[in-house]
Each structure stands twice: as structure tokens, then as C-alpha cells.
Write a structure and sequence with these properties.
This protein is of the alpha/beta class and 269 residues long. It is built from 7 helices and 11 strands. The strands form 3 sheets. It has a 4-stranded antiparallel sheet, with no helix packed on it.
């Protein structure tokens, strides 16, 4: 028959349970074996790194009752992972994981040129695919009236058009006025070219240079900045690579593109 001996250890000598404390950055604790006192700067699997007031770092194992917090024993544990923030698209919208592209709507968004279309795709592409909106480019606005007439926008086929340098009294402004209707919306930004809608700081320049009237704007910009002026297409691709999200674009463009997406998607399935 197995014999059991009573526990005669006095209560004050028994090991009492101690609280578990997350090793959050900035928490100040002491390692009693060494007397090292410092703030938590890092907590990894099985270890914690402390930094004392002199900037010295020490790494200690995460052991039960291994530290003192305000003079009392505690067991440090790894902090719980922070709730993951919703992923965002380049436009700043909440990403929809696993979302499939919607069948294309009858409605469309037209932009002036290839560079405009590539920039819109870079920043708003995910949103446009979910909404089923196709973006096409016009290669200028001179023929916009006939293009709009052939498209024949209606309640279930709205047409949104983004125009460069849309300022009152300009040629672009007059053409825009002539095609605007209940189901065709023309909006624009004040920039001579879509390049200018990219924030200069994104490209490491102080500002977009002024180009004399009558001179090709892209060529003039490249010459002023010391970029290759004989291949503006390659320069644009280099610019486009520096654009990571809507934060790299000017607000005057952001608002207009969002307005067009809302207009086209608000006219039916």
C-alpha cells in the first residue's frame, strides 16, 4: 500500500502563484539573478530583451517567476498579437480577399491617354475590377463628341470621362461642356499632363518645372530635370514605378477619379 506523507512546508515558504504579465515594449522589470533593470524593447520566442537607462541591452529567457515588477515576482509572457488591420488597396479602399472580378459593366471610364490609363490602373485597378468598370483611353479629346455619340450613354451604360487641364475657357473645357449630359460626366484636373498629378516628393524632386508655352511639356520637363528627353515613355514607366498608392498623387486627381467611379457604378448593374 502506497504511503502518502503530509506536506509540512509552512505556508509562508510555499511557492505562491505569480501573475503573468505581457512583455509589452516599455515595461520596466528587473531580472533578480543579475540585478539588471531595464525596459522591454523586444520579445521573441523564449526570450526578452531589456535596455537599461545607459542604453545597454541584455537578453534573458522567459522563465516562470523570472522577473520582478515593482519588486514583486512575475512571469513575463509574449504579448498577444495585435488584431490585424484590414488590408487596403492602393486607392485606400478596404481590400476584399478572394474577391473575383465582376463581369464588365456597360458603363465605361475614358481617360485621355495611355499614361492616364496606366496610372488609374496602378492605383484604382483592384476597385475597378470588383466594380466591373473598364477604363479605356482616347488619345486626346478632339474627337470626344463623336466618341460619346457612338457610345450613346444611358441609365444602364453611364460614361465617365477624365480630361487633363480642364480649366474654364480652355479647348478641353468647351469640348467637355458639349458632351456632358445626365448619363455622361466629364471631370478633370488642372494639370497640363497626368505626370504632374504625381507628387514631386514621390520622385525626389522639389517641384515640376515650368515649361514655356509652345514647347512639348514632357520633353521640356525631361530636359529641365536632366532626364532622357528622347524616350518619354521610358521616363513615364520610371515615374509610375515610384507611385505606390493614392498617397503619392495630388488630391485634385484623387477626387475626380473617385467621382467618376461613383458616377459609373451608380447607374445600374
Amino acid at each position: 500500500m502506497r504511503q502518502y506523507s503530509p506536506d509540512l512546508t509552512p505556508p509562508w515558504k510555499k511557492s505562491q502563484p505569480v501573475p503573468e504579465v505581457p512583455a509589452e515594449p516599455g515595461l520596466v522589470v528587473e531580472e533578480p539573478g543579475t540585478g539588471f533593470c531595464g525596459a522591454v524593447i523586444r520579445c521573441e520566442a523564449g526570450t526578452v530583451t531589456l535596455e537599461d537607462r545607459f542604453g545597454k541591452h541584455r537578453v534573458f529567457p522567459l522563465e516562470p517567476r523570472g522577473f520582478l515588477l515593482e519588486g514583486r515576482p512575475v512571469t513575463l509572457v509574449r504579448p498577444s498579437a495585435a488584431p490585424a488591420r484590414p488590408a487596403r488597396t492602393a486607392s485606400g479602399s478596404v481590400a476584399v480577399p478572394g474577391a473575383r472580378a465582376r463581369v464588365a459593366r456597360a458603363g465605361r471610364i475614358y481617360v485621355e491617354g495611355r499614361h492616364d490609363a496606366e496610372l488609374v490602373e496602378k492605383v484604382w485597378g483592384d476597385d475597378l475590377r470588383i466594380e466591373g468598370v473598364v477604363v479605356e483611353y482616347l488619345e486626346g479629346v478632339d474627337h470626344l463628341p463623336s466618341i460619346v455619340a457612338d457610345f450613346a450613354p444611358g441609365p444602364d451604360a453611364r460614361l465617365g470621362i477624365l480630361v487633363d487641364h480642364l480649366v474654364p475657357g480652355s479647348k478641353e473645357w468647351r469640348i467637355a461642356q458639349s458632351v456632358t449630359s445626365e448619363h455622361a460626366l466629364v471631370v478633370g484636373h488642372p494639370y497640363i499632363d497626368i505626370w504632374e498629378a504625381v507628387k514631386p516628393a514621390c520622385l525626389g524632386i522639389a517641384a515640376w518645372p515650368a515649361v514655356p508655352r509652345g514647347q512639348d511639356w514632357k520633353t521640356g520637363v525631361c530636359r529641365a530635370l536632366g532626364w532622357p528627353s528622347d524616350n518619354t515613355g521610358a521616363v513615364w514607366q520610371a515615374i509610375l514605378k515610384r507611385v505606390g498608392s493614392y498617397k503619392d498623387l495630388e488630391p485634385e486627381l484623387l477626387g475626380r477619379v473617385e467621382e467618376l467611379i461613383d458616377f459609373v457604378t451608380g447607374g445600374g448593374a
